[in-house]
Write a structure and sequence with these properties.
about 350 residues; alpha/beta; 9-stranded mixed beta sheet; 5-stranded mixed beta sheet; 2 domains; Rossmann fold
Length: about 350
């Protein structure tokens, strides 16, 4: 694999040239970024995935909906809807499928039924449509839009993975970087995600030395916390959905993932159970009937009679497609929701910066 990536380095140089020209055209205002009269918050990263963009957007949604100010009740999210089979603008409803809007927007709409979830490859066009369709819109949250320069967000949040910060990665296609680290200068807030739950002052200083935030940039640290199990297909509420029940009784787990970085999830389960079998698919993988047959076969081959299937919340959105869901009937399959938490007082600082920005604008 490494040899293949070395062979791709000339293409990465070409990619760098194209990326530099693209951003320089906006930096020099040859190409114009649009500003909007309502608050627009962008959440994105420098790499192809795995930093937790959608969970951080969900954190902001929860923050705004429960704000003490109490008037942020018309919140919208906008993404391109990666992996969907449709194009153009679409406003999600509770019946929208992952095929129509993408797995992450479906997850957002299923979780927050009172917000407006939209998809559009052209974020500026998407915001225009939202403003037309949703009178009195309070704020738009752009999911995965750091490289989308057509819109000038009022507040830009950049996520960088704790482990990856210390690594030297190449640009696409030889590596996973969408743009050079110098692009971090556009961010108002830099969040180091997937940090250890117990972060020492020494580690904080070490990361700060690597990142070198500007004086007007906030550098914060977040980590992932896991909630309790949820039936993945929404039809097995009678099945015990308590992770402690399965962990304490030595259940075997078949872990099925189609996400960019499954290592934190593997490590979490590895600390809590004795037997873990992992079936890893590509990010945003569309599950086929052949995949389902392999999953059922691997599940049947686990010798332990006490066993369950676990997946991610994002994957569960793609498994809920009618034909696929029916093939999983009578199987104990769950997903484990995740929530974002911040280190020390970083959460208070982040909350204040978000609320202050939306309130003032």
């Amino acid at each position: 694999m490494k040899n293949v990536r070395y062979l791709l380095l000339p293409l990465s140089i070409l990619y760098w040239v194209i990326t530099w020209i693209y951003h320089e055209l906006y930096n020099q205002r040859i190409l114009r970024s649009r500003k909007f009269k309502i608050p627009v918050i962008s959440v994105g990263n420098l790499t192809t995935g795995g930093t937790g963009k959608t969970p951080h957007v969900e954190y902001i949604v929860r923050l705004l909906l429960r704000s003490e100010q109490g008037f942020f009740d018309r919140v919208a999210t906008l993404s391109r809807g990666y992996g969907r089979a449709t194009t153009g603008f679409a406003l999600a409803n509770e019946e929208s499928t992952a095929i129509e809007i993408g797995d992450e927007p479906r997850q957002m709409k299923q979780k927050f039924k009172n917000i407006f979830v939209a998809v559009d490859e052209n974020r500026a066009h998407g915001i225009d449509k939202l403003l037309t369709m949703v009178p009195g819109l309070d704020v738009v949250l752009l999911d995965d839009a750091f490289q989308h320069r057509r819109v000038k967000p009022g507040l830009s949040i950049l996520l960088r993975d704790f482990q990856a910060v210390s690594s030297r990665m190449a640009l696409l296609p030889a590596g996973d970087m969408r743009e050079p680290v110098s692009g971090s200068a556009r961010a108002d807030i830099i969040i180091i995600t997937n940090s250890p739950k117990m972060l020492s002052p020494h580690e904080r200083r070490r990361i700060q030395h690597i990142v070198k935030p500007k004086d007007d940039q906030s550098l914060l640290f977040s980590f992932v916390a896991y909630d309790d199990l949820v039936p993945a297909l929404g039809t097995d509420e009678h099945i015990m959905a308590n992770k402690a029940f399965y962990f304490e009784r030595g259940y075997a787990i078949l872990l099925v993932t189609g996400i960019a970085d499954s290592l934190p999830l593997q490590e979490y389960y590895g600390q809590n159970i004795g037997e873990l079998t992992h079936m890893k698919f590509g990010d945003h993988h569309e599950f086929t009937m052949a995949d389902i047959q392999k999953i059922r076969k691997n599940f049947d081959n686990i010798a332990n009679e006490n066993k369950i299937i676990l997946t991610t919340e994002k994957d569960a959105m793609r498994l809920a497609i009618p034909g696929v869901a029916k093939a999983f009937e009578n199987l104990p399959i769950f997903y484990l929701p995740i929530k974002i938490k911040f280190q020390d007082d970083d959460g208070k600082k982040f909350n204040k910066q978000i609320i202050d920005y939306v309130t003032k604008n």
